[in-house]
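My main concern about presentation is that the manuscript never shows what a single data entry looks like. The format is easy to grasp once an entry is in front of the reader. For illustration, here is how one protein appears when written out as sequence plus structure tokens:
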Amino acid sequence: MEIKIGIVEDDPRTLSRFVSTIQSRANWSIAFACGKWHEARHAISQDSINVLLLDLGLPDGDGIDLIPWTLAHYPSCQVLIISVFGDEDNVIRCVEAGASGYLLKGQGDDELAEHLEDLMDGGSPMSPQIARRVLTQLRDYTTPNRFGNTTFEQKSFVSGPSLTSKELLVLKDLTIGYTYGEVAELRQMSLNTVRHHVKSIYSKLYVNSRTQAINTATRMGILDLK
């Protein structure tokens, strides 16, 4: 299966390096490669893509605004942020907008390829510093119990979504960090079945990414990680 990748990066040398890395893989192809916000917006509306590599600091616009634009055209597209900006505000805004991964610039070519493979296999690649910020944000949704430990705050949502027992198992496995393939092996399901469950989870929670699903399920008290 051919994987079509769009790239939005304003630094010409970095853009060229990304293009070379992708072109070196047999089943990967470049849908478009550009360095400006308005060029990217037009390209996204014209070219079908499976993955978007997105820089945030574009000269004519905020890269984050391209995330919902992309997902509106291609709901199953995986958006991978590669940026010099690692502050909490940008990280959380990208996650809430639907990004599937977030890397700080400085990745080697082989590392980038590995992160892309992880992304396509259902993973959510993140630089260690970014993962810490996401975990910190998740802790904001926890409350201390009487033993001094933390448990996820249980809220009552009478009309909230109802995930099946298998969907909850799959979501819990994704929360731990398993790929789709690992979930399939662990739960003795086919890969297509896992993907079906994930699609159903996203639909019920009105989200577009693993991280959004975890955050939303946690806030609503339907994800028990104990």
Notes: The CA atoms of residues 88 and 133 lie 6 Å apart. Residues 142-160 have pLDDT under 50 and may be disordered. The first strand starts at residue 3 and ends at 8. The longest helix spans residues 191-205.
